[in-house]
Structure formats: C-alpha cells, structure tokens
Design brief:
- Among the domains are: 56 residues, no CATH class; 123 residues, no CATH class.
- The protein has a nine-stranded parallel β-sheet with strand order 1-2-3-4-5-6-7-8-9.
- Helix 11 runs parallel beside helix 12 and helix 13 runs parallel beside helix 14.
- It is of the alpha/beta class.
- Strand 8, helix 15 and strand 9 form a beta-alpha-beta unit.
Length: 430
Amino acid sequence: MRRIIAEDPNWSLDIVPSLSNLCLQCLVNKFEEKPIFEELTPTQKDYIQERLSTSLPLHVTANLVSDGVYWKRCCQQRWDLCDVSHYDHSWKRMFFERHLENIIELFIPDVTESSTVVKMVPLCKKYVKRLDISQLLPPIKEPQRGGGEDEDEEEGSDLVIDDEYDIPRVDHFDFGILLDKLTNLEELHLVYRVKQCGMNFEWEMFEMTDRDCESLGKALKSCKTLKLFRLHQSHVNDKKCRLLVKYLLDHPSLTELDFSHNVISDAGARGLGKLLNRTKLETLNVCDNNISGPGAKAVAHALSKNSSLLSLNFHLNRLKDEGGQAICKALLKNTTLRHLHLGGSEVTWHTAVALSKVLVVNNTLKSINLSCNTLGEVGGKALEEAMCHNSSVTECDIRLTDADEQSVSSINQVVWTNQSLEHKKKAQEK
C-alpha cells in the first residue's frame, strides 16, 4: 500500500534532539531515584537545573544541586517578591532562609513536632546566615468545658490550680533546639507577635514570657557565630532584658544589639551598661523605651571606658538633661563612638552646651541627632560656636529644637564643608 505523508515545511534536523540531550532528559525524569549532578559538565548542569521539578524532596536536592537556576525557579514559584540582592545574590540562600523562617513562624508548641525543624538542619545549615522571624505562635488554648453555676463554683478552685501549674513546657518556639546547630548564622531578628489574629487578639500574643526569655538566652549563648541580634516590639521589660544580658556577656562574636520598641527602663539599662564592657558591641539601639537619667548614666559610665562601640541610639527615651549630660561627659573620654542619636529624649540647652564642649575636642563623632528636643536659642548658639572648631561631624540634625535659624544655617554650612573634605579624603585614598 502506498502512503502519502504530508510535507512539513518547518521540519529540519535541528529540531531533532541530540542523543546527549535525550540522556540528560532521562536523568531529569529519574533524578529522585538516581540523582546524578556533580559528574556533569557546567553546560549539562545548567540543562538539568532548567528542567528539574521544583517539587523534588529537599533531602535529594539540598546538598547536591548547586546555587543557580533551579533555586531561582523554586523561589519564584513559591514567593511573589524575590529580591536576591538581600541574600548576597544567592538564590539557594534565599530559599533555605525563607523556608526555615516559614517553618518557625507556623510552629505551634505542643502540636508541631520538633523534628519538623531539626530534620531541616543538615539540609540548610550551610546556607542560612540570617533569620527574620516576624511571627511566633503561642500554644493552642483548649476550650473550657461548659457547665452550670454550681459546677463552676465547685471547680473554681481546681481551675486556679491548673492555671498555676498545668502550663506548657515552652510558651513559644524553643530556639534552643536550633541555634547551636546553625553554624553559619550571623543575624537573628525576632518579634513575638501573631499576625492577622483578628478577633482572637490578646495582649499575651505580643510579648515573650519568662520561659521564652530563659530558653532564648541559652540559645543565644550557644550560637557562637551570631553577630546581630534584634528583638523588638515584644514588650521586653527590665527583668527579661537583664536575663538576656546575662547570657550575652562575653559573647565571642556579637557586634550589634537592637532592643528597640520595648519597655526597658533604668534597671535594664544598667544591665546593658555592663554588657558594653563584656562584649565587642559596635552598635547598641534602645530606641523607644522607658530609659531615664539613671539608666543613661549607667550606660555613659560604661561608654567612658569602652573602646568598641561605634553607634548609640537613645531615640525616644526620657533621658532629660541628667542622662544627656552624662552621655556628653563620657564622650570627653571616649574616642571611638561615631554616631549618637538623642532625638526626642527630652533634653534641653544644658545637654547642648555639654555636647558643644565635646565637639571642640572630639574628632571621632560623625553624626549627631538632637531633633525634637527643646534646645532653644542658647543651645543652638552653643552648638554653632563649637562646630566652628570641628572638622569631623558630617551629619547634625537639630530640626524641631527651637534653635535660632541663623545658628541652624551656620551649623549646616560647617556640616557641608566637612562632607566635602570627607569626600576629597576618600577620593585621595582610592
């Protein structure tokens, strides 16, 4: 019999896959059963990465498939926003950091198995350098049994006992099972809160408990590579602050500590003062707390002896002149601090006068923020006269301080001159 085959004008030998590509496609199809990757050439690896299924188990791909197109596809399929520049341009790092963050944020104590987190460690510990945890779920409360009034009265005493003793082992996720195993972790950002809680809102959802604090402190101590620790908006009080400080003393790598937007007052600040001389801290941020004069004096006492701190942020505290002047007095001895933020700290012209004495002799400070304080004309004049003798300050914010406009203009002119000198100096160094 004769057959008539329609001629395809688009057909050519170019559309016939090569034998090597057919073999590579076979590897793609059987990758979970027999993963072969390291033996391939770079071109062949690219071919595999472009075609591998993103639903493959992580225990197959995590330590085998190198950073590249495959992990980019995994990220873009899972998340809408994928800015790889925040992850040192590593798609693999982005995937494992965000994947581990998601597991922790959805972890329910006494419901989720700890093994869910622990089994991820061998797969991700090489790639996780930063964890940004924006939610920590508390245990699920069991509904109370209904009953009549007599039953309620009879069981009232038992309920009180249960509240006191029958409590969960850990109120939130226990970081003790994880941090010591993440050998490359450098940054940890935590917020104790529940997102989208709706009508189930309770204040307890937005603060860490004493047990949380104890377990977190031990975990931080065990994480020897940690450089930055941020715990904010979590209702951290003096007791919790001092407990965390106890575990952070003599930490070998911690350089930045952020306790902003909490309720730390003077007792906690005294603990932070002790920490300054028992670590290598370069940045301390206690913005928006309840620290007043005595607490600032404790930090100032430590600052006068400190040789590592580069940035100190007391923004939105209640230092008043007692605390502000103490900080300025310490800067007469300190020769390392570069950035000082006293904005909105209820200081007046007395602190401005004290700071003016520092600016005449200190050549280390680069930026000063005194905004939203009542410095008045006297404070503005004092700073103006001092800045005429200073060549290091390249930022000076005195907005909303009631300072004289002429003084503000003169200070800004000196700042611009210092900035120009700084730029020329950097250009010559290059």
